[in-house]
Automatic annotation (TrEMBL):
Lineage: Bacteria, Pseudomonadati, Bacteroidota, Flavobacteriia, Flavobacteriales
Protein name per its UniProtKB record: Lipocalin family protein
Keywords on record: Signal
Signal peptide positions on this chain: 1-20
């Protein structure tokens, strides 16, 4: 009887954890990244403010640090003519489809001490992740049409 109860407890604990695919993704995302380029799926000039923070030009070249054991991070904008400095955030990777490896990525800005979240969050698709490259995609509505923003990172 004790073995049966112990087995049930072990199974319930294992079923509550994150999937293996998400755990592997968190291990890969850990560390320092550079946001190299931001592209769009349609031709044109867009005046977008990303993450309600800064322009495409300011985000390109920004550095990002992910600490998956507590789901926090910092990105630093350091471009000329930009409001430079560190921005803190929390993040969550949520599995969408284990076969394709695509995820929803939730990023929420926080104050400097990681104590309180802002009331806004940004849902992005983690569309590619390897040991050296990562891509996020965000779909937005522009004049009634869907536009996909691609954010391309490389690991430092």
């Amino acid at each position: 009887m004790k073995k049966l109860i112990l087995l049930c407890v072990a199974i319930s604990l294992l079923s509550c954890g994150a999937s293996k695919t998400v755990r592997v993704s968190k291990k890969v995302i850990k560390g320092d990244w550079v946001l190299n380029s931001i592209t769009y799926n349609k031709a044109g000039t867009y005046n977008a403010t990303l993450l309600n923070d800064a322009s495409k030009a300011c985000f390109e070249g920004s550095t990002w640090q992910f600490v998956p054991n507590n789901n926090t991070g910092i990105y630093t904008i350091n471009g000329a003519n930009c409001a430079t400095g560190e921005r803190h955030f929390i993040f969550t990777i949520q599995e969408v489809d284990a076969e394709t490896g695509l995820y929803d990525f939730l990023l929420k800005p926080t104050n400097e001490k990681h104590k309180s979240e802002t009331n806004q969050g940004f849902r992005l698709k983690l569309s590619a992740l390897s040991d050296s490259d990562m891509q996020w995609q965000q779909t937005v509505n522009v004049a009634g049409n869907s536009l996909t923003i691609n954010m391309n990172f490389s690991k430092q």
